[in-house]
Predict the structure.
Amino acid sequence: MEVIRATCAGACYGVERALKMVRQAIADEQQSDVTSRPVYTLGPLIHNPQVVAELERAGVQAVASIEEIEHGILVIRSHGVPPALIEQAREKGLTVIDATCPHVSKVQQAAHELHAQGYTVLIVGEEGHPEVEGIFAYAGADAFAVRDADELPKVLPSEKIGVVVQTTKSQNALATVVEELQRRGLEPLVKNTICQSTRKRQKAAEELARGVDAVVVIGGKISSNTTRLFEICKSFCPRTYHIESPAELNPLWFEGAKRIGVTAGASTPEEQITAVIEALEALE
Ligand code: SF4
């Protein structure tokens, strides 16, 4: 049995940057002459339970809202947040470390510019996802979000539509939404804000899935970019499995398989990928 890793897989620039910033904040506080302050994140720093547990052991607490924090340091995740929330945290006296991924900041900026130019902003993304909620705050009151073309309302709020995309959406989802808008006679102004890391991982996942008998996708079950990789691989290779750790591997999945592909979401650290590859190789 041959285990083949996708040419591009695992932790992306924005996730590594956020992890580095939070680890630096912990180290700075530990070295501080004054009493060290607690470090918080709004929600888990990344959608990877193993990494979040490791950060918890190092003293980083994930909270659901800033009301839960009395004092200390608040790290903003790579997904970004509405600007009002950062202001609120600062007014409360918290030290804010903004780890919003620069690519997400670009989407927020694009939404802001489209709105300022009089466009109704359509976000191709998952409503309720923290990144999308952050983008909404820049996109004007009439902005709306759809996951795909099927979710487009029959009657659109405006004929002047500007499109931005959640960084982790697939090219295909964007293309079908734009095609449907054009089919309805509109000429949307499209800002393709899918991040390169996402594109490269998706392309590599497709190439991988086309040439293997089974695929293992590693990453948090609530990670949208990992779920997208799973969907892409599954569409080319029905024997595709999404796991968070090697303990979930089931040898029956790979019966008769000669080539097993491995890919991983943008919030999956290298150690987790290596552990899965080693476990797969041990199945032989
Ligand atoms: S997937 Fe792209 S946008 Fe999201 S954190 Fe990583 S680099 Fe940033």
In short: Residues 2-11+196-282 form a domain with the Cobalt-precorrin-4 Transmethylase; domain 1 fold (CATH 3.40.1010.20).
